[in-house]
Automatic annotation (TrEMBL):
PANTHER family (alphabetical): 3-HYDROXYISOBUTYRATE DEHYDROGENASE-LIKE 1, MITOCHONDRIAL-RELATED
Pfam entry (one): NAD_binding_11
Protein name: 3-hydroxyisobutyrate dehydrogenase-like beta-hydroxyacid dehydrogenase
Superkingdom in the source lineage: Bacteria
Gene3D superfamilies tied to this protein: N-(1-d-carboxylethyl)-l-norvaline Dehydrogenase, domain 2, NAD(P)-binding Rossmann-like Domain
Sequence ranges assigned to domain 3-hydroxyisobutyrate dehydrogenase-like NAD-binding in this UniProt record: 166-283
Species this protein is from: Methylobacterium aerolatum
Coiled coil: none
Domain annotation 6-phosphogluconate dehydrogenase NADP-binding: ranges: 5-163
UniProt keywords, alphabetically: NAD, Oxidoreductase
Amino acid sequence: MPSPLAILGLGAMGAPIARHLAEKGPETVVAVDADPARLAGLAGPRLAATTERGRIAGAEVLFLCLPDGSVVETALFGPDGVAERLAPGALVVDLSTTAHADALRIGARLEAGGRRFLDAPISGAPAGAEAGTLTVMCGGTDEAFEAARPLLDRFGATVLHMGPTGAGQLTKTVNNVLYDIHIAALAEVLPMAVAMGLDPVQLGQVVTTGTSRSYASQYFVPRILRAEFDEGYPMGKAYKDLVSAAAVAAENGFPLPVTAAATATYQTALRQGHGEQDKGAMILPFEALLGVKVRG
């Protein structure tokens, strides 16, 4: 008998979400990923981890936790797509970060096939996924949100219905772009301060405790001081957030001068080959330009 609940994508966020879904509910959760290595540690009395997408067939609720919109569309509608295998009227909850336009297109296509859709991107990093304290930003109908809410509460501490389809992804874009702007500001200002003779460690204490502190400074500054640029999400993959913001701005005629400047900082780091490193590596081009190192 098919399980009513499934999740596709068991990366740093998807795996702990699968565990919370299984541990906090009565259903068996089918957890699917193409990479067998990601199935390690996911065994449990109500958790069936597998590489076989066919196990999703008949699911009434499907969570997606995938890298971007193109991967989501392929997973749902590609040659081995799962959308048509779901139960009639099934609810697809997309936890991935995609563009606003992607969410609108995916939602319309699912609804045309008799399935419901909720775009529900998440924020809180892998630590929040492990703790079950994620922020979940949802876009979709009231009915879809209310149907998903008890499940979202299993891994989210803040679960918000932001509006119609696409509103969740639009909110995530706003959140991520503000985060990117904070990191870009740190990347250009900290090397300037060190070039002027300020001590990097003491400077780090100020920007992580004073009025300029932010999640970005508190997360990245200690890692910059230790020259650790490989703990966060790769910059090249995260670039899609700025692309999405630029598309929304262009379509609606919104001026975003500060976002455009931060995007140029981001692009400079990408052009210099830092796409596999995390966003803290945005500081490297400015360190090279000024001939300094912001290190402890």
